[in-house]
Amino acid sequence: MQILRQIMRTALVAGILTGLCFTPVLAGDIDAPAGWTLEQGVDLPSYALIEPRSRTLNLDVVVLACELADDHRVLQLQLYLTNDGPLMPDGVAAARAKRDPRAEIVIDDHVFPVGLLFAEDHVVLSDETREMFPRLSDRLLNAIEQGTTMRLRFDLVGEPAGQPAAFDGEAVVDLQAGPAATRGAAVAAVRRCATDAAPQSVALASPRR
Q1: Are 111 and 104 in contact (CB under 8 A)?
Q2: I want to staple 145 with a disulfide (CB 3.0 to 4.6 A). Which of 72, 122, 181, 187 is the partner?
């Protein structure tokens, strides 16, 4: 939670300084999402974060992150939670988590099956790997950059014997929320982090720090 609060505090200050008017979403106040907020104070942003418009699970913020992966960089969708986890639908005990959870991303009716990787303080969604590092494909990144609505759908809870698997948690992200200048531009800026040359000895900034 301390890490997550640091992310939100940094984004709030950045929003005030840049005029984005970023306001953390509180319970019952999720009808006016602020849109993407980029990492501030750098020439090449390494992450952008956004809050869901609605959610039925303990997901707080979604982060598009540029991560070092050996001698290259990959883009990941990272999910930070409202508590210590695990990622679960509201009101469901962690003991009911299934062994083989699954997820998909739906952007404007286009479906992207994705894998889940449970890291120490966040969850990673990706639809490709590069040399064993999970990453987002160009096709999915194009959809995130150009799309209108992104739905993150999860099958996290074990079903009773004999019942088919079903999605039981969802978060909806308004990709067109916020000032017009940030719509798609924030995603494009983070994508450049994975393609522009930079000294390998310089560590990328991360929203987890």
Answers
A1: yes
A2: 187
Over residues 51-80, the mean pLDDT reads 95
Give the E-state strand segments of the chain in sequence order: 37-38, 47-50, 54-55, 59-69, 72-81, 97-107, 110-118, 123-126, 128-130, 133-135, 149-157, 169-174
Task: Output the six-digit token pair for 138.
Answer: 């160009």
Q: pTM of the predicted model, to two decimals?
A: 0.79
Tens-place pLDDT, residues 108-126: 999 999 999 998 889 999 9
Select from 123, 74, 122, 105 the least CA-distant residue to 114: 105
Q: What is the pLDDT of residues 136-193, one digit of tens each?
A: 999 999 999 999 999 999 999 999 988 999 999 999 999 999 887 677 899 999 999 9
| Rounded CA separation 15/172 (Å) | 22
End-to-end CA distance of the chain: 12
100, 160 contact by CB (below 8 A) = no
Residue count of the chain, please give it. Answer: 209
Cα–Cα dist 15/43, whole Å: 17
